[in-house]
């Protein structure tokens, strides 16, 4: 009878140890995902004493910490083709001014153009602009007898410039000229056309820059942010202020 109890007692101890070991194994599997586990089981009077050990911080990459590094804007060149229409007949004064402009153009009194984007620069809160470009070969083409003369101007813009929506023109010559059109080539959107069909006076007669817009129409509510101030200024110049002689 005593022998059977001893055998049964050993079986109960083994069963208790097996069940406790199973719980330890299951606890280890369950708590592994929670960065903690149980180790060093110690038998003490048919019971299992467990020590709880926490794991240290686990190195991980958080999506909140991963930030894309913005690409640096690169500069590239675009070309503008400016078409001017010449007068059929010139008087003596106009001929003298034409030759004078051909000479002064070589020393820096040029026709200056600047592209204006439809987008706003987030830093300056102003429309994005290109560098100032001048019409090339003015003096070499001053004596051409053709009705229309094409001039080239090269602009430098950033890769995040956007689409040009306006262009400004400053005539630093003595004589006015008739600007027919401007076409800008080199943007991903394709050629951008600026129909001008206007006389551009000298800055000595009309200070300031002439503004010409592309042939892309906009409703007042849909006008891009980069062009709103220029649209208002151009409209004010066309209407006049009721003073002086137009």
TrEMBL record:
The answer to whether UniProt assigns keyword Nucleotidyltransferase to this entry is no
* Entries under SUPFAM superfamilies matching the protein: Lipase/lipooxygenase domain (PLAT/LH2 domain) (SSF49723)
Ranges of residues in domain PLAT? 92-214
Molecular function (GO) terms for this protein are:
metal ion binding; oxidoreductase activity, acting on single donors with incorporation of molecular oxygen, incorporation of two atoms of oxygen
Renumbered to this chain, the signal peptide range is none
Positions of the Lipoxygenase domain: 217-246
Alphabetic keyword roster: Dioxygenase, Fatty acid biosynthesis, Fatty acid metabolism, Lipid biosynthesis, Lipid metabolism, Oxidoreductase, Oxylipin biosynthesis
GO BP annotations of the record are: fatty acid biosynthetic process; lipid oxidation; oxylipin biosynthetic process
Q: Which InterPro entries match?
A: LipOase (IPR000907), LipOase_C (IPR013819), LipOase_plant (IPR001246), Lipoxy_PLAT/LH2 (IPR042057), PLAT/LH2_dom (IPR001024), PLAT/LH2_dom_sf (IPR036392)
Under the heading Pfam families, the entry gives: PLAT
The family this protein is said to belong to: Belongs to the lipoxygenase family.
Name of the molecule in the record: Lipoxygenase 1
């Amino acid at each position: 009878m005593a022998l059977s109890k001893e055998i049964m007692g050993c079986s109960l101890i083994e069963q208790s140890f097996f069940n406790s070991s199973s719980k330890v194994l299951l606890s280890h599997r369950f708590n592994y995902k929670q960065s903690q586990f149980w180790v060093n089981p110690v038998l003490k009077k048919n019971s299992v004493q467990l020590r709880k050990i926490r794991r240290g911080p686990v190195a991980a990459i958080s999506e909140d910490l991963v930030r894309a590094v913005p690409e640096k804007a690169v500069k590239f060149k675009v070309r503008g083709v400016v078409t001017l229409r010449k007068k059929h007949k010139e008087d003596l004064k106009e001929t003298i001014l034409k030759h004078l402009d051909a000479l002064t153009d070589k020393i820096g009194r040029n026709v200056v153009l600047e592209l204006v984007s439809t987008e706003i620069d987030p830093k300056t809160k102003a429309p994005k602009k290109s560098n100032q470009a001048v019409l090339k070969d003015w003096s070499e083409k001053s004596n051409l007898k053709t009705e229309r003369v094409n001039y080239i101007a090269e602009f430098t813009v950033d890769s995040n410039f956007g689409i040009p929506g306006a262009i400004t023109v400053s005539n630093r010559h003595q004589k006015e000229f008739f600007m027919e059109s401007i076409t800008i080539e080199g943007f991903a959107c394709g050629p951008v056309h600026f129909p001008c069909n206007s006389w551009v006076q000298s800055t000595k007669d009309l200070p300031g820059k002439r503004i010409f817009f592309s042939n892309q129409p906009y409703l007042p509510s849909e006008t891009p942010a980069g062009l709103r101030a220029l649209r208002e200024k151009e409209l004010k110049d066309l209407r006049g202020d009721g003073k002086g002689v137009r």
